[in-house]
Design brief:
CATH architecture: 3-Layer(aba) Sandwich
Oligomer: single chain
CATH class: Alpha Beta
Helix content: 10-25%
Strand order of the largest sheet: 4-3-2-1-8-11-13
Largest sheet: 7 strands, parallel
Radius of gyration: 18 Å
Strand content: 25-35%
Number of helices: 5
Structural class: alpha/beta
């Protein structure tokens, strides 16, 4: 049983093997369900030339946004870019390459990568700049464009609970991109709020089976609120 235990005790161990130029898929969106401590470890390592795949690039000073401060990200593949002034500055200055991808397409790129599907056709983006340079094909009198799937050298994921075998449950909105990202990494690292013993999780409630997970670490989380609404 010990050989199946995927728990690591330090963030340094959790991100062991990360090198310059790698591709990282990160779960969460905005500040919801983001693997904030794993991101902080990437910041600490000062790994450079990264391609990061995530719904967005966090905010100034938190989440993936902290990786922009020392220009660790070379290319960002995202569906939303509206909450980060430093991101905007680096994009306009030509210091950051950005592949803006429709949100559903981005989600399917992760899912397909995890399922071993190299590419898929979608109608989303046809007739827009998204389709430039991409193969198109007609099915049932409708045009579709070919999108390649994504596999990351690392996938970093935020869960709620996990057991020592790496079976993971996500809580509420944190189910966003996390389950998809978890399947698409050559090395998948999950940080969770609680690690339980094997057998304590109800099998029918597990969102990510441990077969996809390489490392699990328990962390503490700031859980910032991105936008506070105080009156309607």
């Amino acid at each position: 049983m010990a050989g199946f235990d995927k728990v690591v005790v330090s963030y340094e161990e959790a991100m062991s093997g990360l090198e310059d130029g790698m591709t990282i898929i990160a779960g969460g969106f905005g500040l919801c369900g983001i693997p904030e401590n794993l991101i902080a470890e990437i910041k600490r390592r000062q790994t450079k030339g990264l391609t990061v795949v995530s719904n967005n690039c966090g905010v100034d000073g938190f989440g993936l946004g902290i990786l922009l401060e020392d220009k660790q990200i070379k290319k960002m593949i995202a569906s939303y870019v509206g909450e980060n002034a430093l991101f905007e500055q680096q994009l306009l200055n030509g210091e950051l390459e950005v592949d803006l991808t429709p949100q559903g397409t981005l989600a399917e790129k992760m899912r397909a990568g995890g399922a071993g599907i190299p590419a898929f056709y979608t109608a989303t983006g046809v007739g827009t700049p998204v389709a430039e340079g991409k193969e198109t094909r007609c099915f049932h009198d409708r045009e579709y464009l070919l999108e390649e799937s994504i596999i990351g050298d690392f996938a970093i994921v935020k869960g709620w609970k996990a057991d020592r075998f790496g079976n993971v449950i996500y809580r509420h909105t944190a189910q966003n991109f996390n389950p998809l990202a978890a399947t698409a990494g050559k090395i998948t690292v999950v940080e969770v709020e609680e690690i339980v013993e094997v057998g304590e999780l109800e099998p029918s409630q597990i969102h990510t089976p441990g077969i996809y997970v390489d490392r699990v670490i328990q962390g503490s989380f700031e859980k910032r609120i991105e936008k506070v609404t105080v009156r309607s």
